Amino acid sequence: MTTGGADASPSPPPAGSNHIPLDSLPTATRAEVVHLSCAHQSVRKLAQLGIVAGAILQVQRSAPLGGPILVEIQGSMVALGRRLAHRVLVRILP
Amino acid sequence: MSLFDAIPGSSCAACPQRCEDGTPLRVALIGQPNCGKSTLFNSVAGYRSATGNFSGTTVRLTWSRVRVNGTQLELIDVPGIYSLTASSPADTAAKQYLLSRNIDVIVNVLDASLLSRSLELTLELRELGIPIVVCLNMIDEARRKGMSVSSAKLSELLRLPVLETVASRGVGVQELFLQVVRERGREPEPTETLHWHRDVESIVERLERRLARGSLPTALPPRFLAVKLLEGDEDLLPQVKRETHEAAHRLREELARSHGRPADSVIMSERHDRAMDLCEQCTAVGHPRPDLRVAVDNLLTHPILGYVCLLAVLAVFFWGVFALGGWIERGLLGALQAAFLPISARLAHETIAFAVVTSLWQGFAGGAAIVLPYLLPFLFGLALLEDVGYLPRVAYLLDGLLHRIGLHGTSVVPIMLGYGCSVPACLATRVLPSQRDRFLASVLATLVPCSARSTVIFALAAFYLGPRWALAIFAFNALVVFFSGWLLTRLWPEVSAGMILEVPRYQWPSLRMTARKVWLRLREFVVVSWPLLVGGSVVLGLAEFWQWDRYVNAGLSPLTRLLGLPSSVGVTLIFGVLRKELSMVMLVQALGTTNIHAAMSAAQILTFTVFITFYIPCLATLVAMTKEIGQRLTWLAAAYSLALATALGVATRFLLLAAHVP
Prior knowledge:
Number of helices of chain B: 28
CATH architecture of chain A: Roll
Structural class of chain B: alpha/beta
Distance between the termini of chain A: 22 Å
Shape of chain B: elongated
Radius of gyration of chain A: 12 Å
Number of strands of chain A: 6
Strand order of the largest sheet of chain A: 1-6-2-3-4-5
Helix content of chain B: 55-70%
Oligomer: heterodimer
Distance between the termini of chain B: 74 Å
Number of helices of chain A: 2
Largest sheet of chain A: 6 strands, antiparallel
Number of domains of chain B: 3
CATH class of chain A: Mainly Beta
Structural class of chain A: alpha+beta
Shape of chain A: globular
Largest interface: A-B, 46 and 45 residues
Helix content of chain A: 10-25%
Radius of gyration of chain B: 29 Å
Number of strands of chain B: 11
């Protein structure tokens, strides 16, 4: 689970065992965004690109050496820094 | 005859007032980045309007006047925004303009192939109470993806006119603007179908009623304000009374309690759901056609081959720029010198008039023949890479690396621009979200050798010592930039959580739009740097005339002695602040010989080049930097570069001494 600190959002992530951080989602697996525990500004920026709780996305590929991951959401591609992706909780869809 | 008549001489930077002759219809083109909005603007406005802002790098608005079937339109190209929630200074400017309500009709441009996300902005714009025409652009891209969008159905659901266009080929553009003229004065009607889930809706309505009750100090519609206040938009707080702040705060908490997550997150999800819903109702999804771009992208973002391609692209890019630049420089410099001969022959030497005219001419020729030949192809190549859509891929590939020096992939543009000219590089940091990121990116972008400093490296290290030494200096510079980022991040840690960047699909660049972008960046050089270059050159000429250089050299002798350089080069260092490439030109004068190697040893030439490469960015850059990050941080950046250059100069001197380089 993500650590606290200034970056964390005030609300705790909802309980659930099948929630994983986005950076550990295998490629080409559909998942639903459950919770965003990043800074307020990032939450807004993510929302602008369609990444909100309830949105469905999949990881296309990830860059080597701790680089970003490339996410497909609603037909567009978004590159997310690895640390940020770690703060996005998703649930794998059957 | 064309339906559109561009009105000659109508273009200028964003004009804050309504123009004198009549009251044209103010039409704002608004859409998300990469939706083809500027292509649409260009297809109507023509060449004459090519001015103002582009792709978020500057915030000036571009406008142009056109006549549509006898009606005068004032067309404003607003920088692309994803939503009405600002996340960078560039966004804020676009948002402020929208909220100024100085708009008669909005043309909301949507990328039909990204319909659902694009509609989120439409839903927000609808609340503004300004007439809207929805332009469903890139309908061909949507078809390629297997999406068939019914514009009639969308129009019925949104209760707004929806017109299909392919702006890049001019399809549907005439019909769009005829509709714009008809739409004047028709505010969007409220419609139940766009309302949100009942519990959220009831909270929005409660705040809306409260806002409507008290007299508002603003012309913004109560529903728009209510939604934005629930989203926690601080920019709008001054627009409402204090009591309402508390009411909004209570309702936000109520919303957060009932949904188990922050109110803004609830509102954003609502809008997302509503847009998805609309999109599903008017779109039939079939099979996508095979797209070559997917294969290209698989290669260019490949974990290994992607980097190989990147290196190849950069190698070709820089080689092309320097080959072309060198070729133009040689020709132009010769021609300019020949042109100046008759002028200088007429003036009596050793007079103040001669000193002023010569230095004016040198300043002008330096900009024209030494900087521009490299800057122009550089900016053109970079704009081409940007317009094709390659730069976001570069950002994706380099984010991991840039992260280690405290930046992220989004800073790729300012750093790359730094190799051309530091002035546009500093201005390009405006798209970065935090002051700290802007500071760090400007410091690193100005450490990178700009085309003027590259000229010094080539003319000194490459010419006298061989190209391998020039290459070594470039590589060494990259290492120092990397180390500086690492060091500065230790002193001022990263605050932003990381890169969030849309990677748009590849597009054929339009030459006209690329040229426009090149001109906008070039203008920063022509307007800001060039006059400073000329002015600096005159100061320098006068200093020489009155022989102030002796005092300067004496004052700087501790530094030159430390670096092991002849004391006569002192003056070239101080005036390098005015014009970087002039340090080299000056060197010839200061040493009194055109064969620099005769007066300075190989080690001295290298030490001098290293120092010139790193120390204080030129005056024009300092001015641009002050504009973006403020005076205090600019001084800090200058002091850092001076300390760095001195340390590296001394290190070079003693390393070469130890290695027995003569």
